[in-house]
Design goal:
The protein is an alpha+beta fold. The protein has seven helices and four strands. A four-stranded antiparallel sheet has the order 2-3-1-4.
């Protein structure tokens, strides 16, 4: 699906919704300077185009269930399309794997897992053991920053980091 580039009003709407998904359309219209109907139409267009995937509550999972987080870096020993499909199918059907990204480099995947205890973590990893994978587990001691708190406008408008290297 081809969609028109985002304009500053679209970015303002996305930033406001990323900050507060429960904001009323009337309040959002006030923030953007649009009237409610054109603002609502833009929201619907952004949803159809896939820029807005959903609206979610930011729930403190660890507090809710006294759960621990684990980051798992996994590598497929024989990285074929079939092995990747098998790995991703296990991820898709495992509810306490809350995030998984395919990555480049020495690992193939980075997963975020919530588990009640180490035994629960091992049970979560058990289906992967039928595959030939190598993995390293990192228990998370504290989440310093996560993407639910991102500022869309700052992210898009951020200048590239300056380099201290002279290019003479």
């Amino acid at each position: 699906m081809t969609c028109a580039p985002l304009d500053p009003l679209d970015l303002q709407i996305l930033a406001a919704l990323a900050h507060d998904g429960r904001i009323s359309k009337v309040r959002l219209a006030e923030i953007t300077g649009l009237s409610p109907t054109p603002c609502a139409m833009r929201i619907e267009r952004l949803e159809r185009a896939g820029y807005i995937r959903g609206y979610h509550a930011d729930i403190d999972i660890e507090r809710l269930g006294n759960l621990s987080q684990f980051i798992v870096m996994a590598s497929l020993r024989n990285c074929t399309a079939e092995a990747a499909r098998q790995f991703e199918a296990i991820v898709a059907t495992t509810p306490n794997i809350v995030a998984c990204d395919a990555v480049s480099g020495s690992n193939d995947y980075a997963m975020r897992i919530f588990a009640r205890n180490v035994r629960h973590y091992h049970a979560t990893m058990a289906p992967f053991l039928t595959m030939e994978i190598d993995y390293t587990t990192y228990p998370v001691s504290k989440t310093v920053k996560d993407r639910t708190r991102l500022n869309v406008t700052d992210l898009i408008d951020a200048p590239p980091p300056s380099s201290s290297v002279d290019h003479d």
